[in-house]
Amino acid sequence: MTPTLPRAIGKPDGRWGPPPGPENLLDRPADGARFGHRARPGSDVWHNLTVPQHTASRGPGRPPAAKAAETRERIVQAAREVFSELGYDAATFQAIAIRADLTRPAINHYFASKRVLWREVVEQTNALIVSAGMERAQNETNLLARLSAFFSVAMQADSEDRSAAAFLVTSVLESQRHPELASDDHDSLTASREFMSWAVNDAIKLGELTTDTDVNHLVEMLVAVMWGMGFYAGFVGSHDELNSVVHKFELLMANKLWNLHE
Fold first, then answer.
1. CA dihedral 57, 62, 66, 72 (to 10 degrees)
2. Per-residue pLDDT at 134
3. What is the pLDDT, as a whole number, of residue 162?
4. Which CATH number fits domain 118-253: 1.20.5, 1.20.950, 3.40.190, 1.10.357?
């Protein structure tokens, strides 16, 4: 932090010197040492005092763009946690800045408004879990394998960042309270419903699955289960407990969890 010097007062001979009085810096030569200079008697101290200039430093060889990307990611991570804990309305740039260990102006430098930051977090989190899960599931050839692939991506994300699932659930709730926050391009609920509909209907078309139940109702039930596990992952259970829940769900889907006797 650059030290603030007392205001200089003009002298009749045109020279500048320190203000008079008992707090005169020149009356305390040791003060000069505080600024990295040897103390000198008389007004020479005032004229020769050079205030050190502090500039932001970066690691050797690291380009500014890399530092900017790192700071931006810190902000997004902190915002994901704060939004998950407080909700959209109660979350503030100040709270996010504290969580990211940055200043509030630094947040404004990267994101012009809370809504812009919100949408960035939605986009990144949706890509991290929903889009990545769907992509992996498309490489599988049957319903159970596709659901397992999707959940494996979700569990991996949960192991790396517990706030991801919590934020996805929060984003769905907030889109109900604030429709203006919803985004057609990054709507995780709609995307997960489309994925489940594709997986179920494809299983029916291939003869893997038969049901007398309305397919849309079946899809909605599976969507509810998926988001219920998302809530469990984000707000209730540990990662190990989530792993156990997903495993039991897979056994249930494979008709291997229990035997019901009428």
1. -20
2. 94
3. 86
4. 1.10.357
